[in-house]
Design brief:
This protein is an alpha/beta fold. The chain is built from five helices and five strands. The chain has helices at about 5-60, 95-110, 120-130, 145-160, 215-300; strands at about 80-85, 115-120, 135-140, 170-175, 180-190. It starts with a helix and ends with a helix.
Length: about 300
């Protein structure tokens, strides 16, 4: 059994660790709040873009565009699929990274011809260690999701899509839904026109719109901005999920540390109490021995 000195040293070590986990919890909470504010400030613009795309489909019955499936419905095109996988730059976030990677592996098993695009150092190291080729890795984007970085990713993916090097593009990220978050895969391109069709034809525009030079060109100008917004929201959602997972992990670590501290403190108090009791017993025994010795000596003198 460890001595009192070892237990006291371990208590100090656990308390130091608890300070670190408390600090990480507060930092994650601050980052989470800031990311949510940034997303709330930018998303109205992209919602407005979506509204304009819906208006186009309410106005024009026949729309043929490279970013949309044909009007006949979804089709399986032969060619490579692009998978944009969003992970974190570091761990200590529970199952956040593992869930995203498992979803990516599930998608890769369904379609073997793919090109992998990875956000986050954790994902890059994971796929590299398993000799899974990565088409492009985006450094530092996971910890600092911005519109500019989302735009860079968008332009790269759209360029490959327009060259038909990618026939479909999927985004694999962690959707932040308050206290619960789950890894999911969403087809980014091509769009299905039903995604932008109006639920009610009563809202159809009565007056004709004039598109210059054409509806197809207008969509070609709008879609890149809309895709940028979707990628940015996925980056921020994943970042918020990461911070939320880290807060949960650090909160659990704090509770475990506190339980360990309580147990160690109890052991230390019991050991200290035992040592004090032993000292008192020894002192009492010594005093009793001295008293008996004095009485024996006094009796000898009387004789």
């Amino acid at each position: 059994m460890a001595g009192a000195k070892e237990i006291k040293s371990r208590i100090a070590s656990v308390r130091d660790t608890q300070k670190i986990t408390n600090a990480m919890y507060l930092i994650a909470s601050t980052k989470l709040q800031k990311a949510k504010r940034d997303l709330d400030q930018t998303m109205p613009y992209f919602r407005a873009l979506r509204g304009e795309i819906k208006r186009i489909f309410r106005t024009v019955d026949e729309v043929d565009n490279q970013y949309f499936y044909p009007s006949t419905g979804e089709q399986d095109f032969p060619g490579s699929y692009g998978y944009l996988v969003i992970t974190a730059d570091k761990g200590l976030a529970g199952a956040y990274n593992q869930n995203a990677i498992r979803e990516a592996q599930r998608m890769m098993e369904q379609h073997g011809d793919y090109k992998l695009f990875v956000v986050g150092e954790y994902g890059r190291q994971y796929f590299t260690a398993r000799n899974i080729p990565i088409e492009k890795s985006f450094l530092y984007t996971a910890q600092n999701p911005t519109i500019q970085r989302a735009r860079e990713i968008c332009y790269l993916l759209l360029d490959l899509y327009q060259k038909r090097e990618l026939v479909k593009i999927f985004v694999i990220y962690t959707d932040f839904g308050g206290m619960e978050a789950s890894a999911k895969s969403v087809r980014l391109l091509p769009f299905h026109r039903a995604q932008f069709s109006s639920a009610s034809r009563e809202k159809a525009v009565k007056l004709p719109f004039e598109f210059s030079p054409s509806v197809d060109t207008v969509l070609d100008c709008i879609i890149p901005s809309y895709v940028t917004g979707f990628i940015y929201s996925a980056l921020v959602d994943s970042f918020c999920s990461e911070q939320n997972a880290r807060m949960t992990a650090m909160d659990s670590a704090n509770k475990n540390a506190q339980e360990l501290l309580d147990d160690l403190s109890m052991q230390y108090n019991h050991m200290r109490q035992g040592a004090i009791t032993q000292e008192i017993t020894e002192i009492s025994a010594g005093a009793l021995g001295q008293k008996r010795g004095a009485q024996h000596l006094e009796g000898g003198r009387r004789l």
